[in-house]
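User: Hand in any protein.

Assistant:
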Amino acid sequence: MKTITISKEQACRFLLAHQGLRPPYGYKGKAGILDFIRRVGCIQYDPLDIVGHNSELVLQSRINDFRPTMLNELLYEDRKLLDAWDKMIAIYRVEDWPYLRYRQKDASWRSRRGEPALIKKASGQILKAIEERGPLSSIDLDHDQKVDWVWGPKRLANVALDNMYYQGEVVIHHKVHTRKVYDLASRLIPAEIFVAPDPHTTQEAYHDWHFLRRIGGVGLLWDKHSIWHGIYRAGRDERTAALKRLVEQGRALEVKVGGIGLPLYMRSEDKGELDSIMEPGNPPRRAVILAPLDNLLWERELIKQLFNFDYTWEVYKPVPERRYGYYVLPILCGDQFVARFESGRDRENGALIIKNWWWEEDTEKSDEVFSSLKDCFQRFLGYLGADKIVVAKSLVKRESLDWLP
């Protein structure tokens, strides 16, 4: 199939439509969460909770009337979703479990680090304890010895549980804040899914599936290294070969975007969606607050080139090196990034705190934009279960924030 050529503006509209960030906004309730994750494959989890976890922030920007309890129910009551490894720690549909067995092979390689004999012995004892006593977390187990692990010395009980979690022997039964409570995967995953054979007959077939999945996680991607981590034994050569095969098989399309030097790739199944946004139209300018690890932002250099929006998550930077702040969230309005703000939460009364605010250079500060932003923050307060925004009067005056609800 010949290469498709589109403009930057068309590429931006397609990405937003693919991500559910452009009209029609059809995702609603728990069914909407499952539909969105089905489309993008997975969403990224992060344990930091400033104004919600990253996964919750991803969903509140797309799911009408989203509340965090919806995601918890799908994970730990309905068992329709899993939090496990895909792109880093992620949340994906339970039916994808057999497809990620190659990812579990990577975890088997990890388990040979440190003190494998000691870890293997402790793992067997812990599996037996979970089988007999039910779901357990690390604090329910002895195994206090410190052992070397991927990120440095760690308590043996934690290492063994991590190892079994990576390999798919245990999954998360529920969480107490960020503390994981594990149960046997064989007890929580439906039997027909748990015992299903690996659908990939070769490593190449697995690579084709996982690279196509990652493309769908964003919408458009290029052949650069930064976005593809977490795909088992897939270096640059394997990646380039897989993208070539996917195009030859007709499962992916090569897309040239004006002003972008490298070709981009999209799933063939999304071509109809691309066709539907080729003409600009004039949809309502809805504003949304995005997560720091939002799917749309997974490939930040591409977003910089397409949207002229330069975003870095600075939580792990030393304070003197931060350009903006600790937990800064981007704001999208229509097809344009218009601002970003440093967020916080009053732990006593639940109020949203706006610590600082930065308008993007080209933002038109019109009544239409202010109205969209006001609606956006009202929805965000609903998601937080809050009824108040705390912001310094000097900041309101300096950045023209009188429109805040």
Summary: The radius of gyration is 22 Å. The chain has three domains: 4-93+201-276, 111-189, 287-399. Residues 116-133 form the longest helix (18 residues). The mean pLDDT is 93.
